[in-house]
Amino acid sequence: MHIAHHRQLFFRHVAQTSAYPIALEIARGEGLYLYSPDGRRWLDLISGISVSVLGHSHSAVVHAVQAQVARYMHTLVYGELVMAPQVELATLLAHHLPDPLDSVYFVNSGAEATEGAMKLAKRYTGRAEIVACRKAYHGSTQGAASLMSEQWYTRPFRPLLPGIRHIDFNNFEDLEHITTNTAAVILETVQAEAGVVVPNAAWLQALRQRCTECGALLILDEIQAGYGRTGTLWAFEQYGIVPDVLLLAKGMGGGMPIGAFIAARELMQCLSYEPMLGHITTFGGHPVNCAAALATLQVLLRQPWISQVKAKEERFRQQLTHPAIRSVRSAGLLMAVELDSFEQVQLVIRYCLARGLLTDWFLFNNRCIRIAPPLIIEHEHIDEACALLLEAIDKCTG
Known about the structure:
Blueprint: H1 3-13, E1 28-30, E2 33-35, E3 41-44, H2 47-50, H3 59-71, H4 84-95, E4 103-107, H5 110-125, E5 129-133, H6 142-145, H7 151-154, E6 164-167, E7 182-188, H8 201-214, E8 217-221, E9 245-248, E10 259-263, H9 265-268, H10 287-302, H11 305-319, E11 327-330, E12 335-338, H12 342-354, E13 357-358, E14 360-362, E15 365-371, H13 379-396
Parallel strand pairs: 3-13, 5-6, 5-7, 7-8, 8-9
Antiparallel strand pairs: 1-2, 2-3, 4-10, 9-10, 11-12, 12-15, 14-15
């Protein structure tokens, strides 16, 4: 089908979520690059929003998918049949998580992981209140959206879930709002859509202690920060705490759609009675997606890329200096480059796009340019990206 015809059908039949979609036509992806049907290429600086941690079409992931498709695909709803890709992935995850995180509930996305964890917390504690952080993003389904503090995003969809209380990230005084009425506190280990806000270690440890004292579950959302992006396999490893529930997705499948919420087996079992089938999902733990996720984790554990993240982060930071750059915030290879306005950010994004670099902005901080490349990015690609970003900032902010 002709390229122009694809574009026409895209605008006619594919639902858009903004008035000005990028509308690049992608014919293939390989490593760090995306290619158009006519051979143009873009260095992917955002990994499909922190998804393609191994780059595009990594051979191990492709092979795992092809091999599993040849064996079997969908069978029966999650948790009933013994399927090797599920079992092996859950076991490998458990082996690389601290106690007591040993029971994995597979879902299709990060938002579904959030939804499942919220139900788990309510069922386990018998409480209704959930505490979330302002400027956090945990997904766009109605339960996950209920956790948002930004009225402009949620007002058109009200009424949402009741019983949500908001606190400020890194605010010690707000910890008093966590009480014996609280079922769970949910937060991103690193606030991504706020423009990469890292936690104060002492605050995070105090939060963990407060949850323990009050009997509230601590749910850490590492949907963006997990899978090595911050320089350790799990971001919470850097802060000396362990959550009661961990949320994963995005980079988990190496490009395939999969998520999970993970807790102690004792905790997770409460979803199996009163009522039975307390949480179910038709496609959660799909064997093809689990095979891709297993291959992704195996490669990450075998290769040195996670250990190289901090050096690559520093290489970006050393080069991204310009009078128009107000700040650079980072947690490994999750970075935000702050300019003066959303208008400047949009101009920079379009300038880069026209010259072969794909980047983006943040949902709750539109003055920042998003940098979240595949972890396989090398120094020469970092230099290439920084040179073009600086050129764009120079041209678009003068």
